[in-house]
Specification:
alpha+beta, 2 domains, six-stranded antiparallel beta sheet, 10 helices
Length: about 350
């Protein structure tokens, strides 16, 4: 247990078990953060308060890293703090006025939803205030949130992964190869880095896979405060808050593909019926040379699948003829086809 902060305005910090666990497992983020701080000992740096967590601690952005620490209870999201770097190891330590603060890197997924809600609430208040007094002199914190809101206004409505290269080479893809590539495209995106980090610490994921993700892979010459990592943190928070994401890129050269993934929560059960199991919805849109544009909508609850295909009338007829093959493939994979609907764009099957 760390010592109580010597300031009447601050409460005691949380136990340092999370930071100690990260040290023992050699977390790449912690090592990167500590290397950065070791070059700034005794220096002052700016930190931004991202939000307050449910346990009373705060998520603070320090040197482009999300750090959890205790701050005065009245601290508001968006506040800019000037901190002095006191120590990089064994735990990052900062000076704020007369107080000594210890920071802990923790998985974003733990409280990302509450953090995003807190930031959203603060942003909403700033928007309302801005409409009433446009000529007001905004504080640095207000200007910071204003910049975030301005950039978010033109952003896509969902967290979107935009890979620069096609998933597969030219030619008809092998289904097993395509499934593996799609799985890797999401798994290695960095959106689930903290969850994968926990799996690695428990011996459930090899280090090589972890090091292939953006947070761990740092090419030579990359600045400590890499803007792309900041964008990735925002995508993590948005994914946690919305429960969905979009992959938009090329399946093969010159073949565009859009893939949406969304978690479907439990629906309220009618009296006398059990509550439905939570599941996943996946939507895929592809354009083929012979079939034209085909949209697939797949819902999975347990092992039960519901599939809907939408295509041009001629292509829809070909897809209907291939229904037995689809059923056989799903049965071999251990999935139950609960419902199948194939519709032409000018009429339904």
């Amino acid at each position: 247990m760390v010592e109580r902060i010597p300031s009447p305005g601050l409460s005691a910090p949380l136990p340092a078990r999370a930071a100690q666990a990260l040290e023992r497992t050699g977390d790449p983020r912690l090592e990167l953060f500590q290397r950065t701080l070791s070059t700034l000992l005794g220096s002052q740096l700016q930190a931004s308060v991202l939000g307050r967590m449910q346990d009373g601690s705060f998520m603070v952005r320090v040197a482009d890293m999300p750090v959890r620490m205790m701050l005065p209870p009245g601290t508001q999201p968006g506040t800019q703090l000037t901190m002095t770097v006191l120590a990089a190891t064994p735990q990052p330590t900062f000076g704020l006025g007369d107080a000594t603060l210890q920071g802990t890197l923790v998985p974003l997924s733990a409280n990302a939803a509450s953090l995003a809600a807190s930031v959203a609430a603060a942003s909403s208040r700033l928007l309302q205030a801005g409409g009433q007094a446009q000529a007001a002199d905004l504080s640095p914190a207000a200007r910071l949130l204003g910049q975030v809101l301005k950039s978010a206004a033109g952003a896509p409505p969902l967290p979107t992964l935009n890979p620069a290269t096609p998933l597969l080479p030219q030619g008809a893809p092998d289904p097993a190869q395509l499934a593996a590539q799609l799985r890797q495209a999401v798994a290695k995106s960095g959106l689930f880095y903290e969850a994968h980090l926990a799996e690695w610490a428990e011996g459930k994921r090899p280090l090589a896979e972890l090091m292939a993700e953006p947070q761990a892979y740092k090419p030579a010459g990359t600045p400590p405060t890499d803007p792309s990592l900041s964008q990735l943190i925002n995508q993590q928070l948005a994914t946690q808050e919305s429960g969905q994401l979009v992959w938009q890129g090329q399946l093969a050269p010159q073949q565009a593909m859009r893939w949406e993934i969304r978690r479907e929560e439990n629906e309220s059960a009618a009296p006398g019926r059990e509550q439905d199991e939570a599941g996943w919805h996946s939507g895929l849109r592809l354009r083929f040379a012979l079939l034209g544009e085909v949209e697939a909508s797949v819902s999975l609850r347990g092992s039960r699948l519901q599939i809907e295909l939408l295509a041009e009338p001629g292509a829809a007829a070909l897809l209907r003829d291939s229904t037995p093959r689809l059923q056989e493939a799903l049965a071999a994979a251990g999935s139950e086809l609960a419902a199948l609907r194939i519709a032409g764009r000018e009429g339904a099957a």
